[in-house]
Input
Amino acid sequence: MSTKLSGPGSTRTPGRGPAGPGLPRTARTARHHAPITATGLVVKVVLLGLVAGIAIWAAFPLVEAEKWVGLGLLAATTAGLFYLYLTPRHIPAKYLVPGTLFLIAFQVFPVLYTASTAFTNFGDGHRGSKDEAIVAIQSSSVQQVPGSTEYALSVATAGDPATGALVFLVTDPATGTVSAGDADGLRRLDPADVTVGSGGKVTAADGYTVLNFGQASARSQEITDLVVPTAGGALRSSGLSRAYEGRAIRAYDAGCDCVTDSESGKRWTADERTGSFVAADGERLAQGWQVNVGLENFSRVLTDPNISGPFFGTLLWNFAFAIGSTGFTFLLGMAIALALHSPRMRGTNLYRVLLILPYAMPSFAMLLVWRDMFNTDFGLVNNLFGLGVDWFGEAWSARAAVLLVQLWLGYPYMFLVATGALQAIPKELTEATSVDGASPWQSFRAVTLPLLLVALSPLLIASFAYNFNNINAIWLTTEGGPFPADNPRNGATDLLITYTYRLAFGAQGAEFGTAAAVSIFIFAIVATVSAISFRNTRKQEEVYS
Output
């Protein structure tokens, strides 16, 4: 029996033909959702099990820190992932969600964290809370006084003897009890878990590795610096086998919200705006706490002579470096591409292979090689040309050297992309200019170059943005030097990114908040330049389209 379909003379038998309203719902569903194979099921179970394991692993520290909002987001995200991948619906989301999560984790979150850090005084001496700063101030001022209790000391770690966190194992001379102490305080150990030798010295303890004399000697400075808070003061080492409970000469008074030195009588009052204890004469204690400072870091970058002078000087060189690296490599790469694009050239394939060799070599290794080649005494450049130039000792010679290195490393890329763009330009256009009597230079300027720029402008903008933050090019060759005698933080070849790195991790003390503010400036500069360039590129495309 046939069923009439729309359209004259068309019929179909129920159950046959393309899927449509006449088919049962299960048939249409089966057609759109292929059955899961055994391998696919195993992969899904493994991946969802991994998600569950990561969620459980991340939940414990959130519960311990009482971060209930974060715990709620973790639970909601995990439940959402299980719902998404255990149901046959929302097919597009199954492919979009993983990429979105990675984008948030590795792009959005770091940017937001950097932006939030820029509004704080986070850095050396300002890493924790005010209570932690008070404990650090009091602990660091501990001194041994007559009558201080002394303990037999064994130094141990809960991990690798060379790198693990240090722990003091001490035996109370009065009671014989053994305690383990670190920066968080003392905790008594079960007598069944420790072995005590002669003189009360601990020789073994469950969960700890007792250091021998050689291992302890290698970490003597860390042992000296370790302070263990106690109810009566703090515990410090006296050599490698004895410890004493000393008294803190600096104490915090909640009444005046200040720290007072019991020996000198000097007082440092808490300044909540800067997160520091400040004396009447302006002296600040090294230990402070993290606070929100608003726009102060941005203001310092623009107005503080110690930062703004190096910042603006570095910014000018940064633009010169990025423009020079991009422009010179483009001009050289384009010139070579034009030469090899000529029909009169022979052996072009061999030339192309030889010319892209620098592009095939690891850039970090080549930067180190070029650093040695510019060495004043035994470098290849001076020896080959009979020069005596101190390339990295003077500002302008160091800048010229890094630009030459960038030219050698970057022109093969520009050569490759220019070659591809030249081959995409129709020959009829250049032939038409020749017929009109234009010279090769006029033809290049009027036709070839504009079309090349339309095709390569996005790549040139990307190259500029990359070179603007090209930390390897500077750090592996000059390390930012040469440096003036009065400013070891900012060198002649420093880019903003290397200057920021030195601010954040410099030997003179890390300033993460200020470094984050500089990073925001860098982002704003690159984003503005890129936006303007892309707008001009679109105008060019409209003209030549």
About this structure: Residues 490 and 499 are 6 Å apart (CA to CA). The domain at 141-248 is CATH 2.40.430.10 (Periplasmic binding protein-like II).
